Amino acid sequence: MSTNSPNSFRDRSTPGSTDDQVLSSSSGSMPLLTKLSRPFLTQNQLEHLRTLTGLSGPKFNSMLLHAFDQIWNIAQVYNFPMRTIGTAMLLFQKTYLFNLLQNFPPNETTIACLMIASKIEDTPKKARELLQTSYYIKEVTISSTQLEEIRQQVLSLERQILETIGFDFRIRHPQPYIIKFSKEMGISRGDALVAWNIAIDAYATDAVLRFPCHVVALACIFLATKVNEFDVLPKMNFARFFCKKVQLKGAVLDLLEFYSHSLPASRLGKINQSIDANTFINFRIDINKQFRNQNKPEPHGSVEGLFIRDPKLSDKGTVRYILDWERGHVSGEPLI
Q1: What's the pLDDT band for 336 if we cut at 50, 70, 90?
Q2: How many Å from the N-terminal Cα to the C-terminal Cα in the chain?
Q3: Domain range spanning residue 203?
Q4: What DSSP assignment string belongs to 110-161?
Q5: Residue at 6 is within a domain
Q6: How many domains, in total, are found in the chain?
Q7: What is the pLDDT of residues 158-210, one digit of tens each?
Q8: Full-model pTM
Q9: Are 51 and 126 contained in the same domain?
């Protein structure tokens, strides 16, 4: 069997392989590798990637929340809109799904994600400006030589982050849907505001990696009304909102998992200090009762083609990045 054939490519790849190993197995073809954008992943796929990177648990969550605080504080200086903040947070999450920590220093990666987000959302800022603001907020003095060295690192990371997301800029956010759905269901302004803040916290959860933004928006509204002791579930027209109950349950449970462990550091915990973690543990019990008939397991999700990214991948040959609808145009090419 020819090493250029798709079947040969799949036979030689294994779940523990790196992009480098896959690339070498497909030598001789042009392009050497075609990478498919993956806007959403299943829980099984997320766990597989985190096993490969070793980035999970309390230590990683602490790093994630610290980076999000940094993004938030810098964004306030420049009055960035929520879409820029959310995009930066989402980019940070996705970056560490496919890359090793040793290749992506958290501070420089945070600035790179915010810089890319500012470009994607038409609120552009240069790396130097963002770095200067970051060190000013931290009250750290840095020489111009050091600043230039770090700026070069940020610019280098920019390309690698873009490759990580497959140059897929189809990024949407739950906040606009929260406004529309709240009006549709007659949700109070106070509940909608709580849902808005929960949506900011959602960027630190698996919900934004697993579900479309309109599902996350409904989960935020559901949890916000739950906090204020109001049951919004009867008002939710799932067919009209293009959402399945099992999806809503999954997104809500992701949010509850986050609040059960990280409530004090969350936006919700900071604006409503009367809530404690036990509240969300009790919510989990109530929600399991409300959705007792929604126990259909999530699609397992194949881990084929999910690898730790090789940072030098594009230096070794041509890599084509495609969106899902472009699959029909790449028949015969190695696809991951």
Answers
A1: low
A2: 19
A3: 174-294
A4: HHHHHHHHHHHTT----HHHHHHHHHHHHT----HHHHHHHHHHHHHHHHHH
A5: no
A6: 2
A7: 999 999 999 999 999 999 999 999 999 999 999 999 999 999 999 999 999 99
A8: 0.85
A9: yes
